Amino acid sequence: MTRAEAAGYRGIIVTLDTWVTGFRPRYLNAGNFPQLRGHVLKNYTADPVFQKLLGKDASESPAEAVALWGSLFGRPMLWEDIAWLRGLTQLPILLKGVMNPADARRAIALGIDGLVVSNHGGRVLDTLPAAIEALPAIAAEVKGAVPLLVDGGIRRGTDIVKSIAYGATAVMVGRPVLHALSAAGAPGVAHALHLLRAELEVAMTLVGCARLEDISPDVLFAS
Fold first, then answer.
1. CB 150 within 8 A of CB 158
2. pTM recorded for the entire structure
3. What is the pLDDT of residues 73-100, one digit of tens each?
4. Where are the domains of the chain?
5. Which residues are catalytic?
């Protein structure tokens, strides 16, 4: 947290739903699982704080590095951890991966500044509902107390309208931006975001909403 503040970061997002890697048979069957080759661990072992705790370069003793990683991350994140993080910084903290109204209520009570409704793209824990399915109940619990974001499956401007209608303050976009970046670099990202905005503006016009604040559940039809 100290490093983030010193670097000028304006907020922290804590991802709750990938504290450990989910079981992904498709990746295993394809023989393409970067974690097994240690690639993902480099995100941690290259960190100076991790290296200080280890007392040596991770490449000198991979087994010890894995053991340390397991002791730090091989357990679930608890509410006590969230309270501890809240006490470390005055920066806004958002929790990403909230799917339960009770968790939203508890997070707000701990002083969390925002929530992200997310099931991590549905690829971590099988049988979870889609984030947009969990959104209405969480929005009803939050009642506007903190910003409420949602991610997962945002591909068109109409997806943004639906999300806001169900109670989201804003949406987060992942794969469309990454695909655009890989295909066309920064101009591709700008174009992808332009398309989303254009689709959003058209959709808002067609449902009779001049402002984002005008979007309500009234624009939705039950299927």
1. no
2. 0.89
3. 877 889 999 999 999 999 999 999 999 9
4. 20-75
5. 120
